Amino acid sequence: MSWHTIGTIYGKELRDSVRDRRTLLSTIIIPTIVMPALVLGLGKVASAVISKAKEEIPRIMVIGGSDSPGVRGELQRSGRFKAEPASADWKSLISEKKVRAAAEIPEGFEKALESGSAPPVTLYDYEGELKSGLAVDQLRNFFIGMRERATARLLTARGLPATIARPFEVKIANVAPPEKIGGNLLGGIVPYIIILLCFMGAMSPAMDLTAGEKERGTMETLLCSPAARTDIVLGKFCMVLTGSLVAVACSLVSMGVSLVVVGASFGVNPAGQAGHGGFAPTIDPVGMLGVLAMVAPVAVLFSAVLLAVSLFAKSFKEAQSYAGPMVFAIIIPAIVGMLPGIDLNLRLALVPILNISLVCKEMLSGVWHWGYISAIFGSTALYAAAALALAVKMFRCEDVIFRT
Fold first, then answer.
1. What burial letters (b/e) apply to 143-179, b meaning 16+ CB within 10 Å?
2. Rounded distance, CA 243 to CA 252, Å?
3. Among 57, 288, 314, 340, which is most buried by a count of CB atoms within 10 Å?
4. Strand order in 101-105's β-sheet?
5. What sign has the CA pseudo-torsion 312, 317, 323, 328?
6. Rounded Cα distance, 152 and 349, in Å
7. Tens digit of pLDDT per residue, the chain (404 long)?
8. Do residues 183 and 366 lie in contact, with contact meaning Cβ atoms separated by under 8 Å?
């Protein structure tokens, strides 16, 4: 094995890749511009949709309550609802989103409320639907307020203070620093994006340097050179690894700049504290460095696997058909790592991709399990070495190189 030969092949492949638009698109443009713009754009659209839904006055329907005119009148005078006339098919109207929620007031409710023993009010909604959920929340708050006012009146009528029904309040105060909050909020999505971009950044160079060269007829010329097969495959592997790492680096820089911009828009100072009552998630820089260190063996694993798979293909299109389904094998464990209740343990520390997603989530939250980190780094490096050995073995096989 000659490092000089490997470096020469790597330099040649690097120059060719820089001239290739597909490689630049997958390693630089998409990670730097498209992905952050997509994430921030979706977040902005979602925020706008939720804000608009909260400002909308929901259409509701009151079922029953004909003998409770005071309750119905107070509901209409609140200005928080558009009460529609009662209809027999009110359940269908809620399911069809023509009415957002319904309140069923039982018979004799108002009279029973004055005595302090009213029957329950039932609220109906379209579970899982945003506007219906907001409408039923407003209805719940309305009737809770009515209940508290009725309680205060009953206590006052009996000469008791209104505070006797609520002798104390319960307050919630946050004690976690902004870095831990940001890591907890973004700790799942950041590793997912990084793992996906790590794979996508290696995909195009791997296919172009193997199946692409077969189509162009340049593979035979390279094999006729005095360079050893191992040096050739390692030079190509280094180029694929470069594409993967560049994609990750561009995405991290772009996301970091995006977080700074978002933080400035929320009025967050450099210390991470909101200056105008807002909050923008911040991430511990040390945690990001830890994520970068853990991603390195994953990038090696992806590069070696994609190089071996693409080398087996006869054409660039065939390589795409092989590499495309592999994305699902990457996405599924990365998504599982985002799920709540999935905690890192020794068994999961040996599962590829899932272990990286879990440990990166912990590190971004400021939690460092050094034993698990060592096991994950070591096992991932072992998987990567096995994949690289497979790629070298396949490159030495004439049936694979000249497969037709």
1. beebeeebebebbeeeeeeeeeeeeeeeeeeeeeebb
2. 14
3. 288
4. 82-84, 59-64, 101-105, 122-125
5. negative
6. 57
7. 677 777 877 787 777 777 767 666 766 777 677 766 776 777 678 778 888 888 888 888 888 888 888 888 888 888 888 888 888 888 899 998 888 999 999 888 888 888 888 889 999 999 888 889 899 999 999 999 988 888 888 888 888 887 787 888 888 887 777 666 666 666 667 777 788 888 888 888 888 888 777 777 777 777 777 777 778 888 888 888 888 888 888 777 777 676 666 655 544 444 444 444 444 556 667 777 887 788 888 888 888 888 888 887 777 788 888 888 888 888 888 888 777 777 778 888 888 888 888 888 778 777 788 888 888 888 888 988 888 888 888 877 776 666 65
8. yes
DSSP 396: T
CA 178 to each of CA 28, 85, 272, 323, 357: distance values in angstroms, whole numbers, following the listed order: 30, 49, 6, 39, 21
Residue 241: how many other CB atoms lie within 10 Å: 24
128: phi then psi, degrees, rounded to nearest 5:
95, -10
CA dist list (Å): 373 to 80, 291, 381 = 53, 11, 12
For 250, residues 6+ apart whose C-beta sits below 8 A from its C-beta are: 27, 28, 31, 32
- The letter for the amino acid at 110 is E
